[in-house]
Amino acid sequence: MSAKLLKDYSLITIGIILVAISVEYFFVPNNLAAGGVTGLAIVINHYMPFLTTGVLVLVMNLILFVIAFIFIGGNFGAKTIYASFGLSFVLWFIEKVLNPIALSKDLIIASIFGTFLSAIGMAIIFNVNASTGGTDILAKILNKFFHSDIGKSLLMVDFIVTLLAAITFGLDIGLYALLCVILNGLAIDRVIEGFNICKEVTIMSSKNKEISEYIIHKLERGCTLLKGVGGYTGDETVVLYAVLGRTEFIKLREFIREIDPKAFITVGEVYEVLGEGFKEFDNI
Questions:
Q1: Predicted pLDDT at 284
Q2: Any stretches that span the bilayer, and where are they (predicted)?
């Protein structure tokens, strides 16, 4: 296994552990069926308490994978299969070995912290181009047979789960579950953006040659030199453009401070960078 694959599977493992903790210590004890297969498992567990959440998630994922394989093909990817069944195993392990209890019975605290942990875990998994199966598979099936958008299909599935939660556990808990679904979607996007944030830097300096060499040879990043004309002076100038990671930008800033304190620098944040040295198009 390559170093990148090992890193990806390690990150997926961390992600599913965080999701499992949110489910077993915040959602299940408070009957918060916050969408997806795990939410549906919480509802079913209420009627069939002899079946644990982990076992239900495993059985439903198996059924969904079989149905999806028959009707929409088997293009799931090894990472998604690992994440799906890995989550089921971790849920089962926590239930059988650790005997989890609610870390808080306050529904607001359980909703916020459960969603926070779940969003971080899911974001880590999504960021390495994997998913935990379940809801995604249901959405793809709805998309194929009813021609609905994937995003709308996901929302529809989660809404049905929270509706079942409201019928099973009462309207208050159902509304809290719906709140978790909404917050989870927003939080996942924000966390993924945080993982991928880079610094977009433009520099005007008399030491552009030294700065570009530092970026290329020391930071091992590319940069572009753009010809420009000063709006006030009318003189020709050169603008250096580069996209860097956060730690790389800090190193560059210190280097520029040493060699040209009068340099003019603008810095912006970009939330996704594709191409050489960053995320490859094949990994989208």
A1: 52
A2: 9-27, 47-72, 79-95, 107-129
CB proximity list for 68: less than 8 A, separation 6 or greater: 74, 76, 137, 140, 141
Q: Are the C-beta atoms of residues 75 and 105 closer than 8 Å to each other?
A: no
Amino acid at site 38: T
Q: What whole-number distance in Å separates Cα of residue 150 and Cα of residue 157?
A: 11
List own/partner pairs for 55-60 with CB under 8 A and 24 or more apart. 55/88, 55/92, 57/87, 57/88, 57/91, 57/134, 58/85, 58/88, 58/89, 58/92, 60/134
Ramachandran region, residue 279 (left: φ > 0; alpha: ψ -120 to 50; beta: rest): beta
Task: Please write the tens of the pLDDT for every residue from 54-74.
Answer: 888 888 888 888 877 776 565
Share of the chain above pLDDT 70, in %: 89
Q: What single string gives the DSSP state of each residue in 142-170?
A: HHHHH---HHHHHHHHHHHHHHHHHHHH-
Of 244, 179, 164, 236, nearest to 212 by C-alpha is 244
Tokens of 36: 């997806």
pTM: 0.72
The two structure tokens encoding residue 248: 């790389």
CATH says 197-283 is which class? Answer: alpha beta
Residues 6+ apart with CB under 8 A from 108: 176
Say which residue the tokens 């390559």 belong to.
Answer: 2
CA distance 204 to 184: 42
CB of 108 within 8 A of CB of 173? no
Q: Which amino acid is at 277?
A: G
Q: What is the DSSP letter of 214?
A: I
